[in-house]
Design brief:
This protein is about 40% helix and about 15% strand. With about 350 residues, the protein is an alpha/beta fold. The chain folds into two domains: about 1-145, Glycogen Phosphorylase B (Rossmann fold, 3-Layer(aba) Sandwich); about 160-360, Glycogen Phosphorylase B (Rossmann fold, 3-Layer(aba) Sandwich).
């Protein structure tokens, strides 16, 4: 059997799809499984061994009329794979078109897919009203459409040797390989409305540094987000975060997060990646709803904006001049970060001690 997964973006959404795809892999162990994903995110799937082929979707390039003929060629090439089953986890017009173009006789998607995507499916799966989180919805889609009874689990992400070596080198180069707790910081997000102010992050980090003198912390992000990361660094008076925004590819970012004891973050892709790795997160939500897209699992702490419009789901703030952080004391967030760091760092030390004892 040849199976096509259609989930081009975003990083967090792709992470939310992994348990459902893992169920497919377990249910069809001999199937050839391909995944259509935005070319900017294709590197991340290199750490997931359940996919046999990654098919890059060049969204930015193909959005230009000059390159539309390439998109048509892409759709024609999909049919050469002779897919038996295609599942659209995205539920938008473009993903519906890709699902249809696959030529698969079974094309499955959500009944409430947007932008007319449902017209391209042969099967439209309704979701229970009480099923809210994106990860649970993806799992239900597979369970309901294909009769898969297995429990959903987050698959183990591999550790490419080059990424492990690069993450180790990067942390060592910036003095982040000491004995104190290691905190990752994610102040950026795709939507401007999701970004809590850099000065709020700095206030939290300063209080964490005061409580934990051995604190090491680094700021993550893309090259385009480096200025926001630097604003956090410059606003700190006690903490000494290192700006690594733009300094990692997705596989190296994954490994650097794996080595961190906790993550302080906005609602973002790295938040979901950390959750998948089992790294405790302290997450700040304003425009979006953590019940829909929050960090999955019990080992996380979420702070919701006190704004009366939250969650507004607007890409840009509807109340200019009133940040989502208003009404949330940095000290409360800092206390949650300290607790997460202390517990996680102690677990790491205990694990290392036990391993050393076993060697003896």
């Amino acid at each position: 059997m040849n199976i096509l997964i259609v989930k081009p973006s975003s990083l967090g959404d792709i992470v939310h799809t992994l348990p459902a795809v893992q169920m497919l892999r377990q249910h069809y162990p001999d199937a050839l499984m391909a995944w259509v994903v935005n070319d900017s995110l294709a590197g991340f799937l290199s750490v997931y061994p359940g996919v046999d082929e990654v098919i890059p979707f060049r969204r930015r390039r193909w959005a230009k009329p000059l390159h539309w003929h390439e998109f048509v060629g892409f759709l024609m090439e999909l049919r050469q794979h002779h897919f038996d089953l295609a599942i659209d986890f995205q539920g938008l017009f473009r993903s519906g078109v890709v699902t249809w173009a696959s030529g698969a006789p079974r094309r499955i998607g959500f009944q409430n897919a947007r932008e007319g995507a449902g017209w391209f499916y042969t099967e439209r799966i309704p979701l229970p009203a009480n099923l809210r989180h994106a990860l649970d919805r993806n799992v239900f889609l597979v369970q309901s459409a294909l009769g898969v009874a297995a429990d959903a689990t987050m698959p183990e992400l591999t550790r490419p040797h080059d990424s492990v070596r690069e993450a180790r080198r990067l942390l060592r180069q910036h003095g982040l390989d000491g004995d104190g707790p290691l905190l990752a910081v994610g102040p950026a997000a795709r939507w401007p409305s999701k970004r809590w102010p850099p000065r709020f992050f700095a206030a939290v980090l300063d209080q964490v540094a005061q409580a934990l003198p051995g604190l090491r912390c680094w700021v993550l992000g893309t090259a385009d987000e480096s200025a926001e990361a630097q604003a956090v660094v410059q606003a700190c008076s006690r903490a000494r975060p290192v700006n690594l925004a733009g300094g990692t590819d997705l596989a190296t970012l994954t490994e650097a997060l794996r080595r961190s004891d906790a993550l302080l973050t906005n609602d973002s892709g790295p938040m979901h990646l950390a959750s998948a790795l089992g790294v405790p997160t302290v997450a700040l939500f304003g425009a979006t709803d953590p019940e829909l897209t929050g960090p999955y699992g019990p080992a996380h702490t979420v702070f919701r904006s006190a704004c009366d419009l939250s969650p507004c789901f607007a890409r840009d703030c509807l109340q200019e001049g009133r940040p989502c952080s208003e009404g949330t004391p940095p000290g409360r967030v800092a206390a949650a970060v300290v607790a997460a760091l202390t517990a996680a760092h102690e677990r790491r030390r205990t694990t290392v001690t036990h391993q050393d004892e076993e060697k003896e």
